[in-house]
Design brief:
The chain is mainly α and 66 residues long. The protein has two helices and no strands. α1 runs antiparallel to α2. Keywords: Membrane, Transmembrane, Transmembrane helix.
Length: 66
């Protein structure tokens, strides 16, 4: 969750800065950054979670000693 939060905050900051550089009002820039955070955070969290589940070895794939 930390990695997803960190990356989502970085992406939201970049979006906010780019929006601000395009002569938007500070309110528009802040709203764009917050909207990006709300959309990207769950997407990254789910993506990282599913990736970890796929990479974790399951009990069925382990060779048995018997």
């Amino acid at each position: 969750m930390r990695r997803a939060l960190r990356n989502a905050i970085l992406i939201a900051l970049v979006v906010g800065i780019v929006t601000h550089l395009q002569d938007s009002t500070p309110q528009e820039s802040l709203m764009s950054a917050l909207f990006t955070l709300v959309i990207v955070l769950p997407a990254l969290w789910l993506s990282y979670g599913l990736t970890q589940k796929m990479l974790a070895p399951s009990d069925e794939q382990k060779p048995s000693d018997s």
